[in-house]
Amino acid sequence: DIINEILKLPEGAKCTIMAPLIKEKKGSFHDLLETLNKKGFVRAVVDGAVIRLDEEVELSKTKKHTIKAIIDRIVIKEENKERLASDIERALKESNGEVEVEISNHEELGLESAHMHYSEHLACFDCKVSFEPLEPITFSFNSPKGACPVCDGLGIRYSLDMSKIIDQHLPLEGGAIKILFGFNKGYYFTILKAFCKANKISMEKPYEELEDYEQKAILHGGLDEISFEWKGQNIKKKFDGVIKMAYEVLKDDKDLNEYMSEKTCEACNGYRLKKESLSVKVADRGIADVISMPIEESFEFFDDVELKKRFSYLNEQQKMIATPIIKEIRERLFFLYDVGLGYLSLSRDARTISGGEAQRIRIASQIGSGLTGVMYVLDEPSIGLHERDTIKLIRTLKSLQKKGNSVIVVEHDKETIDSADFIVDIGPGAGKYGGEVVFAGTKDELYKSNTQTAEYLSQRKKIEYYYRRPQNEWIEIKNVNINNIKNLDVAIPLKNFVAVTGVSGSGKSSLVLQTLLPVARELLNHARKIKKIAGVEIEGLEKLDKVIYLDQTPIGRTPRSIPATYTGMMDDIRELFSKTKEALIRGYDIGRFSFNMKGGRCEKCQGEGQIKIEMHFLPDVMVKCDACNGKRYNAQTLEVLYNGKNISDVLSMSVDEAYEFFKAHPKIFAKLHTLKDVGLGYITLGQNAITLSGGEAQRIKLSKELSRKDTGSTLYILDEPTTGLHFADVDKLTKVLHNLTELGNSVIVIEHNLDVIKNADYIIDVGPEGGNKGGKIISKGTPEEVANSYKESKSYTGEFLKKELERNL
User: What average pLDDT is seen over the chain?
Assistant: First the structure.
């Protein structure tokens, strides 16, 4: 490249090729000049003057010198091309990658400059800045070569949150520094007091009224030592400031995280890469710009027509390199867009991606791989998807199939079932009542069969609970600004069954779970460590007495967690066994029947019923305990019977069986009744929590709440409770939620399932799209009002709801 640049000079240009060796450094450099002479160099430029190297040269040690070896004097001509190439190579070798060219007749040739300076390195001679060579890993935040050195490629930093350390409204004397509150006579408070006295900072004024420089002094300390009395001694010490003090006070505090906040890294602005990587531009866009825009915008950026304009500055060779890369990027972006993820950005934090979104990202990556002859197995890919996005997903799955792959989908979604080539229906019931193939065939054949699935699909059975309660009292939420929601006001009716709807990524969770729920928890449940959104005003919560949030997190993560213990039923069952005649004779108390305590449990497996075998390089294996045969209890405990059953037999019962068995015991019966109501009659009382699905866990939590004494003023919030539910289970769940509302409670459900949405009293539809095109209330009212106004509101929910309501007529 350097040779070609010099050859662009006009023919006849007289050039001196030089290798720069020393630049502005002190020394006599006798050895260097002697070495150059021995290497065969005749002349050098020292401090701007040409000298002969075979003559004695004396340089002052105390002055700075610049030395350049003259490689050759050459005239630019075609026949001198090989000689020039040799000169340039030698200059680069001698000077470690630099070459200078002086043109003696530049004025005669009409050239602006007589001097040219080139380097093999990515460096600027004027700014004294150099860069590492660019490679793909330079743009990876998982590599030290690309990661921001301040946040190590995380994009965030954890630091002390001053709002959690300092109460602005209080004076220092009254506990403004929260971590010192109650320690007025403590060591740290004594130093603070002495510092304020020495610097004439008021201890009585509210912190917010102190001058800026006073606040900064309190936070960061001072340079001078201060004197103070401590335990009879006069101590002189510098005050390091509240920030450093906080770390010292809290270093052994387990709740240190309570005072920390996650902040965007200031060095990289959350983009995770070092500034050199972020500075590289392609078509006037940096990598941060491209990965931060929604996928649908990225897709437009890499559009063929637009790219020809954007990349017009590339030469033919560069275009050849760029074409296959851009084609690959476009294809992958298209697959992500096609599965309904156009609203996500490529830089989205994986922690904020839902299960359904993650699954669709995996589907998109599989389509992009272009494999054929593969069998894909998907477990409920429609989770978290709006009807509109489900149709996109089905189209994507069909494209996988058309490439010569087999696609097997475990699914409850009507559209997906209707689109399948072949359907396998398993039943007839759930749990021990299922496990049989009750139907296998096409959609038309299924509709004619009498399975439970067919009953609902063919509309012979309908999920209809049309209460349509009036809206008299409201929760008013004002000034919501979070994620894609900007300056939003919304009113949610109380004592109603409310469905919050909208396409995936429209802002439903941001509105309900990140805005309303934290404030409700703090106000009604007196919860601490709540992460609230600043500036939001919520009115109307005072009409409620508590909030209950039911999500799909597991009820436990070990074999010790079972439905019976979670619902509180286990205590009643243990008490029942401890009162049997046999237990009283043997002196067994209630603790004997706990598999978590020594005495009654099997000691080999410690009451887990399973033993973990570590396989070292392979995953651990759980095997049934050979001492108790998985029964959790020792032989003596199992000899105690109630109505012919020992406690292990009871834990092996399904909810339906236990429902009949405990009819005479109101407390246990009531809890079993609520489990049956939410459609969990098939699970066993002692079922390991790890084996329960998210939908089952959520319904167990719901049944636990239902079994408590109802106050009639509770706010229930559920996030997609129909996940993993069959039509029959959705029917039962909808009935339960309406029963809760009938008692005067308020139920808010984030939902995509049309069977639930059409049965709501009131709908709040967020949209119109996902990501930055969402975050607005586009429609609200009864299901009929939302359905009938879908054209004006551009509500996808309203459009599909209209078809669903017409289908039911």
Answer: 88
Residue type, 106: H
**519, 536 Cβ separation under 8 angstroms:** yes
From 65, 73, 13, 85, select the one nearest 41 (Cα to Cα): 73
Q: Give the orientation angle of helix 387-402 with respect to helix 316-338, to 10 degrees.
A: 120
- CA 450/CA 460 separation, integer angstroms: 10
Bridge partners, 584 (sequence order): none
Higher-confidence position of 540 and 431: 540
pLDDT digits (tens, 9 = 90+) for 692-732: 887 788 889 888 888 887 778 999 999 888 888 899 989 99
Q: How open is the CA angle 537-540-546, to the nearest 5 degrees?
A: 105
Instruction: State the pLDDT at residue 268.
Output: 93
Q: What token pair was written down for 535?
A: 């500036």
Distance CA 809, CA 807 (A): 6
Cβ(684)–Cβ(654) below 8 Å: yes
Give phi and psi for 16, each to the nearest 5.
-105, 120
How far apart, in whole angstroms, are the C-alpha atoms of residue 308 and residue 290?
Answer: 17
CA distances from 388 to 472, 752, 783, 797 (A): 32, 10, 17, 8
How far is it, in rounded angstroms, from Cα 413 to Cα 385? 10
**Residue 490's beta-bridge partner residues?**
477
| Cβ pair 635, 603 in contact under 8 A | no
- Bridge partners of 319? none
Residue 264, amino acid: T
How far is 472 from 762, CA to CA, in rounded Å? 12
Quote the pLDDT of residue 409.
Answer: 94
Residue in the structure block whose two tokens are 């919501």:
480
- Structure token pair of residue 363: 């589907």
